[in-house]
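Handout, section B. The chain below has 233 residues.
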Amino acid sequence: MFCDLVGSTALSARLDPEDMREIIRAYQDACSGAVARYDGFVAKFMGDGVLAYFGFPRAHEEDAERAVRAGLDILAVAAKLETPATEMMKIRIGIATGIVVVGDLVGLGSAKEQTVVGETPNLAARLQALAEPGSIVIAESTRRLLGGAFDLKELGPQKLKGFDAPVPAWMVLREAENLSRFEASRSQGLTPFVGREHEVALLLDHWRDATEGEGQVVLLSGEAGIGKSRILV
C-alpha cells in the first residue's frame, strides 16, 4: 500500500515549517495507526509518502482485505484531522498485491532499511498517482482477493508509467453492507478444486466414522492462504 498526502508542496510554500511538520506528523500518525490496527508493517516514510506491507512480516489469509480496510480508516481519520491549514487534509492511496522479496538491509545508521524487490510496490505507487484525492485505487490482483467484501468502481485499463500493457484498476467506494466475510469470499463462486485427494479422503473417512458413533477429532493446520477453509467447503 502506498499513501500520498495531496498538495503537500503547495502547503509547504504557504505554511511555516513548524506548522508543516505538524501536518506531516498527523498524516504519518494516521497512516501508521491504521496499518498497525490491521497488523500491517510501515516500511518507509518518504516525506509525504508512506509505503506499507500487508503479509510481511506476518501473513494472514485476508491481507488484501486488511490493506483496504486500513486505507479506508486512513481516509476517515484524515478527514477529521485539525491542522494549521484551512482546507481538509486529502490523501490518496494505491494498493497492489503480488510476490516480492523483502528483507535485505541496505544503508547505514538512520538510513538503514529493508529492501523490497518486485514490481508490486511500483504498481501501488502508480495506482496512488492515479487516484483522486480522498480515494483508494487497487490493482486487479487485489480485487480478485477481495471477493464481494467492498463496493468497487471499475476504472478500466490504465496506462501506467513503467508498465508495457494497460493495467486494470478499480476504485474502492465503501465496505459492502450486510455481508459476512464468508459470504463475501464466495460472492464470485468457487474455482474447481484441484488435488488434495488424499486429504479429502482422510476427512471423509473420519466423518463416516463419526456418523457411525465413533468419536473423531481432526486438526487441519497450515500457513495462511494455502486453502484450509477451501478444503472444508
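Note. The chain has two domains: 2-185, 197-232. Compare this with the example in section A.
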